[in-house]
Structures are given as C-alpha cells and as structure tokens.
C-alpha cells in the first residue's frame, strides 16, 4: 500500500464543551469556525460550523468523530468526515491539556477520512480513502491527510 500527501488542514478550535460522564467515558464537543487547507491542487478555507464529538476514555484516549466542510479558492465545496484516535502517556496528555506545544512523535493521533464533493474537477475525491496524522497545537490542530493509493 502506498500513500500520497493530499492536503494539510489547519483548524482553529473553540473551547471544549463537556457533556459529562457517560458509561464509556467523558463526552465532549469541540466546534470550529475557521481554518485553511492546502495541497498540490487544493487550497481554500474551512467553513463555519464544523464539529468534533469526542469520547475520552478513562485512560485519556480520545475517540474522534469530526464532520466539517471546506471551500476551495475556486468555490468548490468538500465535505469531510473523519474518525480516529488520539492516545498518549498521562504526562503527555497533561501537557497537551495545558496548551503546551508537544512534539507529535510523543503521542498517537491518527484518523481515517472520507471526502465528498459535487465538483466535477474534484470528483475523484468521492472515491478516496484518506488517512491522516494529526498534530495538536495551542488553539488548533493540523491534519496531514494522505490518500491511500
């Protein structure tokens, strides 16, 4: 299996909203209203209204379920559905929670991504399975999306 870089998405995230303890962990909601993306033939902005529903397991592992929309600089719309996991030792999770810049090699942040578009030019994205490596930064995330060839 081969991978090819498709795009990097940078998202500014709003503060975490907790919905309390559920049977399998803490349920959280994080919204995002702005961001950018860029790839070889893709660039543009994130549309307002994106959301990441998270489940925080007792050991701190996050289950990620994000859904948001992008608009290219040509006016094309791309829907993004992303599911994955972020895990790290407790001391690294504490540094991330404190808003520190943490080297992404110190934690595991991976997602699988499906894209959908009505753009003829970008129609191939409708048949792409993407995998991504995420990086948590103060105030946001960077998602490095790779197309599975």
TrEMBL record:
Gene3D superfamilies linked:
2.40.160.20
> What range does the record give for the signal peptide?
none
The domain of life for this entry's organism is: Bacteria
Tell me its family: Belongs to the UPF0311 family.
Protein's recorded name: UPF0311 protein BDK89_2676
> Which species is this UniProt entry from?
Ilumatobacter fluminis
């Amino acid at each position: 299996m081969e991978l090819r870089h498709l795009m990097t998405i940078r998202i500014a995230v709003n503060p975490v909203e907790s919905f309390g303890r559920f049977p399998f962990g803490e349920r959280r909601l994080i919204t995002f209203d702005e961001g950018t993306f860029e790839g070889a033939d893709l660039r543009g902005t994130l549309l307002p209204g994106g959301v990441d529903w998270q489940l925080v397991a007792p050991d701190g592992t996050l289950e990620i379920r994000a859904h948001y929309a992008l608009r290219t600089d040509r006016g094309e719309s791309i829907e993004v559905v992303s599911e994955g996991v972020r895990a790290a030792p407790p001391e690294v999770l504490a540094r991330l929670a404190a808003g520190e810049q943490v080297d992404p090699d110190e934690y595991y942040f991976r997602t699988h991504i499906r894209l959908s578009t009505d753009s003829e030019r970008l129609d191939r994205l409708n048949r792409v399975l993407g995998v991504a490596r995420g990086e948590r930064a103060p105030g946001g995330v960077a998602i490095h999306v790779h197309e599975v060839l």
